[in-house]
């Protein structure tokens, strides 16, 4: 009896060929991007998205062309951070046009299309069993975004990852080995422990982890114009990350307010200084 | 997936398909040697999982209209076999929004205005899941600015209006 490999083709669908076509399209779309850096954590609520936006702005101040891809498909917030909540996704002749802030920062986020009162919904003929297929569908959408956007020439594409240590690993595999990672933590043992899991997961991939940024590393007090401690316990007994610290960024209430309003610019001060330092470190890492 | 007629040791060939019906497609294969037939029937979960991969099952490319109108991963195969598109729910109106179903963004979409073939073709550059939302946004822009049709020029004006490179 013939075996599977004795029969040429796959019955006519050429599924493998279709998958290869998808990968080729992504590679073609991203050919003008010098560096893909994914900003992850594993832990939610550590400020990944705000930090991703601020890092992109800092890279812009350093003269680099940047764009952000909001990979948090279920909780997209880059559109709000960028003030692009009402910017429609428009088809161009070479791909989907890249929405930009007035400062020229490209931002692709489902938040531009989905009102915050709606969740991301997919068509399904298998009602009630989304746990079976949804992650596959989400990564298919993520790869469509990678392959369909007209990214043009970019020095950096920053990918804002969703929470979840396993998601960090999955996005490493979806982005491919050339994508580098920066992990975000806060000086609390609870967060650092989860970030350590993400670092361990990434250690099983060929992707380079450039280091971590400690966010909310104290807070900026406008009254005394200084940085005060925010987490007394610091990292406690959490495991060492074994990664270089790229920067420690204090929390600034003014940034939180501005982010909610889609006004990302920060006045000069210790937070802006720390963000610029993070960008400089990142540039050194990829040089 | 491949099917083998064991007595004849021959690969069975796709003969025709039934459905989709309730998320299920019946694919009928026949042995070229003995003419024996068998049917593979997908359950909705299998149809959904295949659809989630973003691949089409079946030989050849579906006509653009069918591919754009149907969420069924078997669209390509059914079209190639000459199954009438109407049976797949592929009727289309003038607005591309009417051809998309069930995904985000349908709420609040305008009634729809005509699109030129060129503008419609560009929609392939928008991920399918958010295409309805994109169409709604573009049509709102067109109506708000007094256009009665979406063409490539309207798309370019929308890009300029929204400051999109």
What do these coordinates show?
The complex is a heterodimer of chains A (287) and B (165). Chain A is an alpha/beta fold and 287 residues long. Chain A has a single domain (15-286), classed as P-loop containing nucleotide triphosphate hydrolases (Rossmann fold, 3-Layer(aba) Sandwich), CATH 3.40.50. Chain A is 36% helix and 18% strand. Chain A is built from 8 helices and 8 strands. Chain A has helices at 15-29, 48-61, 78-82, 130-148, 165-175, 189-202, 253-260, 270-286; strands at residues 33-40, 66-70, 106-108, 154-160, 180-185, 209-221, 226-228, 245-251. In chain A, strands 1, 2, 3, 4, 5, 6, 7 and 8 form an 8-stranded mixed β-sheet that branches. In chain A, helix 1 crosses helix 4 and helix 5 packs parallel to helix 6. The longest helix of chain A has 19 residues, at 130-148. Chain A is globular and about 80 Å long. The N and C termini of chain A lie far apart (57 Å). Chain B is an alpha+beta fold and 165 residues long. Chain B folds into 2 domains: 8-91, no CATH class; 93-165, Helicase, Ruva Protein, domain 3 (Orthogonal Bundle), CATH 1.10.8. Chain B is 31% helix and 15% strand. In chain B, the strands form 2 sheets. In chain B, strands 3-4-5 form a 3-stranded antiparallel β-sheet, with helices on one face. In chain B, strands 1-2 form a two-stranded antiparallel sheet. The radius of gyration of chain B is 20 Å and the shape is elongated. The relative contact order of chain B is 0.10. Residues 61-69, 83-93 and 105-110 of chain B have low confidence and may be disordered. Chains A and B meet through helix 1 and helix 4 of A and helix 1, helix 5 and helix 6 of B.
């Amino acid at each position: 009896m013939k075996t599977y490999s004795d029969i040429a083709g796959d019955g006519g669908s050429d599924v493998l060929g279709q998958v290869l076509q998808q990968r080729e399209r992504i590679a073609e779309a991203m050919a003008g991007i010098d560096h893909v850096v994914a900003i992850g954590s594993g832990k939610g609520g550590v400020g990944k998205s705000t930090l991703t936006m601020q890092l992109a702005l800092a890279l812009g101040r350093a003269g680099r062309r940047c764009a952000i891809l909001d990979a948090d498909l279920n909780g997209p917030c880059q559109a709000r951070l960028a003030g692009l909540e009402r910017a429609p996704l428009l088809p161009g002749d070479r791909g989907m046009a890249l929405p930009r802030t007035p400062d020229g920062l490209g931002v692709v986020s489902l938040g531009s299309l989905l009102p915050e009162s709606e969740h991301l919904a997919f068509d399904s003929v298998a009602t009630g069993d989304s746990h079976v297929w949804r992650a596959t569908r989400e990564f298919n959408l993520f790869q469509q975004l990678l392959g369909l956007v007209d990214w043009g020439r970019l020095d950096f594409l920053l990918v804002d990852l969703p929470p979840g240590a396993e998601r960090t690993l999955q996005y490493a595999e979806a982005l491919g080995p050339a994508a580098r990672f920066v992990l975000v933590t806060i000086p609390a043992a609870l967060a650092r422990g989860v970030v350590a899991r993400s670092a361990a997961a990434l250690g099983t991939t060929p992707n380079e982890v450039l280091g971590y940024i400690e966010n909310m590393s104290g807070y900026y007090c406008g009254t005394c114009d200084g940085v005060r401690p925010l987490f007394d316990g610091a990292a406690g007994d959490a495991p060492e990350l074994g990664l270089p610290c790229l920067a420690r960024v204090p929390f600034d209430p003014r940034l939180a307010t501005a982010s909610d309003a889609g006004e990302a610019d920060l006045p000069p001060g210790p937070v802006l200084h720390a963000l610029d330092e993070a960008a400089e470190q990142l540039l050194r890492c990829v040089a | 997936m491949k099917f083998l007629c064991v007595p004849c040791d021959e690969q069975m060939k796709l003969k025709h398909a039934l459905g989709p019906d309730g998320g299920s497609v019946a694919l009928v294969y026949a042995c070229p040697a003995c003419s024996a037939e068998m049917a593979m029937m997908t359950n909705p979960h299998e149809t959904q999982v295949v659809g989630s991969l973003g691949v089409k099952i079946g030989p050849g490319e579906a006509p653009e209209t069918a591919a754009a109108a149907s969420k069924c991963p078997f669209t390509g195969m059914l079209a190639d076999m000459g199954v009438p598109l109407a049976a797949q729910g592929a009727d289309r109106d003038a607005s591309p929004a009417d051809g998309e179903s069930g995904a985000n963004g349908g709420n609040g979409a305008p009634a729809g205005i005509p699109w030129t073939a060129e503008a419609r073709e560009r929609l392939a550059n928008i991920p399918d899941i958010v295409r309805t939302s994109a169409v709604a946004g573009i049509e709102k822009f067109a109506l708000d600015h007094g256009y009665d049709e979406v063409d490539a020029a309207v798309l370019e004006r929308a890009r300029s209006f929204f400051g999109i490179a």
